[in-house]
Sequence to fold (238 residues):
Amino acid sequence: MGNHPFAFRFEGSGGRVGTARSRGPLTRKIYGGFPALLAIRDIIHRNQPIEDRGGPLSQILPLAVKHRVLRRQGKGFVPIGNAERSYLLGGWLEEFAALALIEAGCRDVRYAQPVSWLASTDSSRHWNEIDALGMYGDKPVLVSCKAVAEDTIDSRNGDDRLFDALLELSYWNAHFADRAAVPVFFTTADFYDEERQRFRSPKLVERAKVLDLAIVPVDFGSFGAVVAHLKRVLAHTA
Fold:
């Protein structure tokens, strides 16, 4: 990223944008059928064979084999390795965010990027990982991702869990970019109740506005809609 404006140092190369691009069709398919993948999360954790249960999973599994994320084992499928397992358990959302940033016009995009910085109190070095970041013109963009169940907001303390993630992103913006970045929160939580025509947690939406964060929930439904929303957000900050 050259002379990037963030108050941290890149540690290694992070995720490979080339890899994210090559398996973009799989990543976008997962975005559209994430609940099916979430339902087999425990099976993925245990590295047990994933059986085709029909529905969106029937489209995801063969595509994951094609892109060398899964391999066949008996009558099911298993991740090829630990990196592929991490991708299925949530890393795919970081790649989705990175691809969306690129499509929306950002440059120097990175994801799953390890960083380090010096504490101002004692000059000790600390480490973290930024889910995704890039530059839009001369404006830095910081992204936090949270792959959770769609009904998280409706669950007990669900909006508080998401608010904690929003606070962390706001802290990143303050600590790493002196609040000069565009902070964007990607999540698979469903924010809008279409049937009742209202936000599931107006309080959470208002908190995001106060923190000046852009939210990209699963409600957008498609990669194209997400990119269109990002373009509006970025154009507003230019």
The first helix runs from residue 17 to 22.
